[in-house]
Design brief:
The protein contains 18 helices and 18 strands. The chain is of the alpha/beta class. The longest helix has 18 residues.
Length: 398
Amino acid sequence: MAQPTTAWDHYPEPLTVASAPVPEYGSGSLADLLPTLAAGMGVPGMTAAISELTPADRNCVFLIDGLGWEQLRAHPEDAPFMASLLATSRGGTGRPLTAGYPATTATSLASVGTGLPPGAHGLPGYTVRNPDTGELMNQLRWQPWAPPGPWQPYPTVFQLAHEAGVHAAQVSSPTFENTPLTKVALSGGRFLGRLPGEDRVDLAAEQLAAGDRSLVYTYFAEVDGAGHRYGVDSDTWRGQLMYADRLVQRLAEQLPPRSALYVTADHGMIDVPFDEQHRIDFDEDWELSAGVALLGGEGRARHVYAVPGAANDVLTCWREVLGEQFWIASRDEAIAAGWFGPRIDERVYGRIGDVVAAARDDVLIIASEREPNESAMVGNHGSMTPAEQLVPLLEVRS
């Protein structure tokens, strides 16, 4: 089986901006998946960017939140069915996709649903500054609220497929039906809410068969939740992985004719030890906090917003303090390096931090006072390391 390229395994020192392993936008990222499938079904304006995939009339994407490529490969005994499909990943090449930066749920779901990289769809982090209000906005929970349409104005691939006569459907938890994130990232066609995992995959199979051309999305969140609370490789995490594996097999065994099932994820995850060496507390570090107006993002993928006139000083300080463990870039350097994709829409520019910090080592920048819940997580993600960035694209065809 082919292995990921060596570019992911070697990090030149010092950690220059150019040494960060940028996601494969345009050829092998999550943003390229639905446009490739839709192009194969004849949806106008879609491009088959992932060249390894073969078209199918009916396509189902099953996204398992938090199940990275490296975690799946490390646990074949807990996920025997998915492990047996590793060689099918990315059109039979046995290679993973890249999530996109940052490797976090809100960003990745928007990339999947819109078929656009973060710099275009405009959800470039867990929390980002809203340039219109100056406040930090949590893009997963959509707090504080902002009008969804202006925040992400592009149609989703599901909407475009539906308009082209493709039967489009999302089968997920009823909790997500009316959320702003669903509206901007995954709307279009039918939304069908089901709570039990078995009911969800059974209904996904029914929806695949409901049209001569079908595009169906379904989702499982609990692997991610267990990893955050208890850590990757914990008994609880393994139990959720086992359950997800059974769901994938159950869905695969029900595929109608002329179907392709793709199993992927929004990001991977790593465990970070609970000590001062691995968890650097922004709220207790006067050097890192000097000149900073807002701290956005998350522990391994920070957006740092400086007070007016202090951006260069903040950049210099963060590089001096963290430069051996994090890739530290100015906003313009991160954009020029392609971290957020090949283009940045004007409305998105101010959402990106004056300083962007992406972890290479097993470290976090926590904020124990302002982010107590996030700071207590065992498993974390967000950056460009293989454990976080690489995701499977397992394939079953009927």
